[in-house]
Amino acid sequence: MPLLRLTTGTFGQLRTFATSPALGKRVKTFAVYRWNPDEPDKKPYTQNFEVDLDDCAPMVLDALLKIKNEMDPTLTFRRSCREGVCGSCAMNIDGVNTLACISHIDQNLSKPSKIYPLPHMYVVKDLVPDLSNFYRQYQSIEPWLQREKEAVKGLCEIVQNIGGIAPLDYKPRVD
């Protein structure tokens, strides 16, 4: 969609010229899943937000923060590290389950970016999934280091040595 600019011609007539999109604002539409449990009669829906990409950092999480801070403070999502480590901002972005903090905004301005909560999980509100089942499963497998003998907490520092680290190092299996 070309942008139009009005100018005054040689004899005072108004003329319109199509301008390059690079000269105008680069506006991206984000179609964001919305659902509020406090409004039980209202079904889930997607809400469109227009974000100027020239005034926004490059990641999807940055766009969501801009929407929350400047357009709609009721938008709800999780975030924490902003470095792709913690997984708090996991969501479905343009059909791919990924982290919003490491997902670049699609630069195709003609196609809206669709943002949904993770599939197959109950939704608490908007983009926030219920992690209760995840934490139950996590606890059941106990994916943390466990000592052979229980030390009394706070009595001494337990130092990790190289021999203790070696079994934890990743060794790819070759078949």
Features:
175 residues; alpha+beta; Ubiquitin-like (UB roll); five-stranded mixed β-sheet; two-stranded antiparallel ribbon; 15% helix; 26% strand; disordered N terminus
Description:
The chain contains three helices and nine strands; from the N terminus they run E-E-E-E-H-E-E-E-E-E-H-H. Strands 4-3-7-5-6 form a five-stranded mixed sheet, with helices on one face. The protein has a two-stranded antiparallel ribbon with strand order 1-2. Strands 8-9 form a two-stranded antiparallel ribbon. The chain has helices at residues 60-71, 132-141, 162-165; strands at 3-8, 14-19, 27-34, 45-52, 90-93, 96-99, 113-116, 123-125, 128-129. The model is unreliable at 1-20 (pLDDT under 50). The chain has 175 residues and is an alpha+beta fold. Helices cover 15% and strands 26% of the residues. It has a domain at 25-133: Ubiquitin-like (UB roll) (Roll), CATH 3.10.20.30. Pfam families: Fer2_3 (PF13085). One of its GO terms (cellular component) is mitochondrial inner membrane. It is found in: Mitochondrion inner membrane. Keywords: 2Fe-2S, 3Fe-4S, 4Fe-4S, Iron, Iron-sulfur, Metal-binding, Oxidoreductase, Tricarboxylic acid cycle. It is a peripheral membrane protein.
Brief write-up:
This protein has a domain at 25-133: Ubiquitin-like (UB roll), CATH 3.10.20. Helix content is 15%, strand content 26%.
Sheet of most strands: 5 strands, mixed
CATH architecture of the domain at 25-133: Roll
Question: What percentage of residues falls in helices of 4 or more residues?
Answer: 10-25%
- Rg is 25 Å
> CATH topology of the domain at 25-133, what is it called?
Ubiquitin-like (UB roll)
Order of helices and strands: EEEEHEEEEEHH
CATH class of the domain at 25-133: Alpha Beta
| C-alpha end-to-end distance | 55 Å
Anisotropy-based shape: elongated
Contiguous low-pLDDT stretches (5 residues minimum) are 1-20
Number of strands: 9
Organism: Manduca sexta
InterPro entries: 2Fe-2S_ferredoxin-type (IPR001041), 2Fe2S_fd_BS (IPR006058), SDH/FRD_Iron-Sulfur (IPR050573), Succ_DH/fum_Rdtase_Fe-S (IPR004489), Succ_DH/fum_Rdtase_N (IPR025192)
Pathway: Carbohydrate metabolism; tricarboxylic acid cycle; fumarate from succinate (eukaryal route): step 1/1
Pfam family, one: Fer2_3
